[in-house]
TrEMBL record:
It comes from the Bacteria. It holds the Pfam family DUF2934. This is DUF2934 domain-containing protein. It comes from Bradyrhizobium manausense. InterPro entries: DUF2934.
Amino acid sequence: MDERAKLEHQIELATKAAAYIRDERTASRLRRFADELRQRLFPSTQDRQIKIRARELWEQAGRPAGRDLDFWLQAEREIRGRSDETSD
């Protein structure tokens, strides 16, 4: 089973379980879990742009090990900063 099929299966199981569970706190946690899995399955356009830009920055810097978070945060500032400017 590929990764996409696994995520779809997990979403289905969590959603069904949440519908049958009487404890609202547990049901709510299962629904949130299903939502998180959906976000992994269908990342936003902005998240994809950040991922692409972070990789570009990493490659431009010579592909240093252990600095992925630095490049992700820089890319996030650039991409989200652009979207903030266009929404003004």
